[in-house]
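Minutes, project check-in
Item: structure for the 464-residue chain
Input as provided by the requester:
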Amino acid sequence: MASLLLLGILLAACQSGPATRGGLPGLFGGAPQRVAPGPGAPPQTGAGQANVPPVGMPAPQLPRPAMPADGIETQPLPPLAAPGLVPPGGADVIRIGFLAPLSGPNAGIGRALFDAAQLALFDLADDRLLLLPRDTAGQPEKAAAAATQLLAEGAQIIIGPLFSSATSAVAPLAQSRGVRVLSFSTDRAVAGNGVYLLGFTPDQQIARVISYSRSKGMTRFAMLAPDSAYGNAVAQAASEAVLQAGAELARVDRYPGDAADLTPVVRRFAAGLRALPPRPVDPALAPATPATSLPAASGTELPPARVDAVLLPEGGARLRALAPLLPFFDIDPRVVKFLGTGLWDEASLGTEPALVGGWYAAPAPEGFADFARRFEQSFGRRPPRLASIAYDATALAGILARQGGAAAFTDPVLTNPDGFAGYDGIFRFRADGIVERGLAVLEVQRRGSRVIDPAPASFQPPVN
């Protein structure tokens, strides 16, 4: 379990370190600074960062849209200073390349990713580590040019880019130099050959929530999904997950991702469910527990359920438009459990009554809450959901470098089966470049969500 404890070393340093530490190295060519502003001090950019208060998260715990950049509102940002290569003294410098859209329409999330990486570097407080940020502008050709520059400057590992198209452009360049890439993408097609995915992949979210639902006696599932790349990935994952769970995917309906009115879609879907034969009951398991947040009115008979659960892989405004149409067409959340993906991981989802009581899989929320609090104290704004992954990736690169220098950035080290622990729980990389994460199952409530099945603390199989 040694590898699982690696990122916990960083947390221990955060918890027991002095109240004031030296600032970050001059990532944009500035000199290191010592800063110790009090609460409410203005956020810093570039060389110096606000002091990070201790966090009370137990070791070894440390770091969408669940598809990168979906639902992220961007805002104008001041221009970045031209990055400069200012290595610390000594021959044992570890150069960590960092690719993100620091300009263009996705600059907001790109800057948040970079700020999270700086926060990790600050916590590591190791003068041998040099973070080299380069702007991809969210474009494959610029990502390739930035990666070429990083490799020429001696980057020994690359964190990023954000999008799969940019990752595809960077991958062969890094591979030709034997440099590993930790991409924020969730697209399995770009993984492998030295590229490791960091993003929250929908297939694992689907498998987790369906497995949990099956353990509660649910045997027949249906899905209503957008006709998009994300919908395709979820549909494939759902088919595999129900088969693995010994259940049935009784109906799948798709709809155009840009459909202005979802009413005809839901009407057709509901009619298809009514046409199904009665659902089978598994006597070996307890009956499925429906949501009880919407009690039936006196004298009202609940409609018969032909499926145990309906999977709705949507998020944001689209999910809020879709959800109330389901009970309108007699798909009642009191008798049919609504299931979601990581796109449901937003605090305000419970304002839509039809979704209250629904289940979805995501990292345990406590870790990101701690990270978000530290990020906001340091930079004066709330981070997007993906930012904690950038912290984890940078912390991982830094701690591996401490253990073995640049020689630690190898496939056998990165694919250690024990994995690592971050702000978003445990994670490990498979040989094919796909990340595996320990996920919790959460239930939507009127004010936020609550964990109903905790995330695992280890990748070791449970002892019977």
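Outcome recorded: The longest strand covers residues 248-256.
No further action items on this chain.
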